[in-house]
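hey can u run this one w/ xanthosine-5'-monophosphate bound, need the structure tokens asap thx
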Amino acid sequence: MTVAHKILILDFGSQYTQLIARRVREGRVYSEIFPHHASLSAIEAFQPRGIILSGGPASVYARNAPTIDRRVLDLGIPVLGICYGMQLLTSLLGGRVAKAARREFGHAELVVDEREGLFSGIQNEAADAGVLSCRVWMSHGDRIESMPTGFHAIGHTVNSPVAAMADPRRKLYAIQFHPEVAHTPQGRAIVDQFVHTICGCSSTWTMGSFRKETVASLAEQLKGQRAICALSGGVDSSVAAMLVHEAIGPRLMCVFVDNGLLRKGESAKVVDTFRKTMQLRVTRVDASSRFLSKLARIEDPERKRRVIGREFIRVFEAEAAKHANIGWLVQGTLYPDVIESVSVRGPSATIKTHHNVGGLPSRMKFKLVEPLRELFKDEVRLLGAELGMPEELLYRQPFPGPGLAVRILGRVTPDRLAVLRDADAIVLEEIKRAGLYRSMWQAFAVLLPVKSVGVMGDERTYDNVIAVRAVSSTDGMTAEWVRLPYEVLGAIANRIVNEVKGVNRVVYDISNKPPSTIEWE
Ligand code: XMP
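ok here u go:
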């Protein structure tokens, strides 16, 4: 990005590093994460207005403790050290770090000793108006025993006499707690104060500015050339396509592969939206019978995934081969994929290439264009809104690449697909009717490989069982089952057994992830 005001975050392997980048960006200032061993020249080339040193699991006095190029501290750029970052600053500048008598983990009361500077945005949370204090989140075993020359303490807790310190002359700041996590309610105010006041960044990073700049640079990069994009119906590939489309217009060709494993009515609806509302040039390839015949006798979930992935590549390749003069492949890779693949262990670590849609083959001779690789998911949604993407696509719940095949336990047949589609449509309709669709990560139906006995009218039935699943999650890595109101569950179950032929029983899945997964296969 060529934005003028940027913050660089040097990563020491904390699980919270991405949150630092997000807190900075929420203040509308662009930030990027580099591994801690980034070279001095790479750091200077990035031209940050401020540097934040993240936390990390190591101890500064351990052998091979991760560190930075010491000259970074002489560049005159303001630095904020967080947790491990604070301890590193201390040890690099001649102070002393030692193991604390007690590990400090969880909430702590930070008493602010200096109200100007880093903490000037803090509102008092204490009952006693004579002190200024706020809740912060701690997670450390080491602490500062003596500060480096030039520093003074600006905050303390019961266990950490130096919970925060500053050397305003050199613009070096350090805090023992984590301002980036939600458990530090006023953390944003601290990050904002560092970014805006101390580093002097102004709030110019908006999705409007990102759109303008990215479109201009894509137009330059793809000048006179053609690109292809595999649309899945998900937010990421759609927003990526819209950006590239804005830059090169009809020179972008999109392919939508209908694998026959989509939800009821979705294939037609999604393609219609791409064409009419988003003005994209989309070729719809109906490959459903091909996918279904390949899946015919397969029961094993991993084999299903492999077969579907392989067929997707074949279909896409065949479509691409019809357009010999296309040089670029557009992918909706996001920032978390990029940073997760950067190891903090050593400069030899490489960034692996991510493939969003089905894992496209490397033997295809395309150059990759990934216009979203600097964005987080919520930023992609904002950008989609900025680009005029319709809400139903923008807030569509995630849907797995292998589609309904991993929600039909056992063999996938046209009949079983029809049963699942109808049941699934009812689940979504009722959840939308109750106004709950956007409050959860995913909701769907699963067709079980068992039959149960029931009674309908005066007749005994021996039919399928549908499981209903609804989960909340922030990233799909962990998930909790949603406490759906009984009325909603009742309406779903009633409608499914009454309206879907071949189903006589509905159960609700109340397992969390872990230990379960979100999908059943
Ligand atoms: P699990 O079942 O692993 O799912 O808890 C986590 C999230 O990932 C989605 N998922 C997939 N997405 N291809 C995808 O594009 C896949 O093979 C796949 N498997 C699971 C799932 O829907 C959930 O949101």
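The radius of gyration is 27 Å. anyway lmk if its weird
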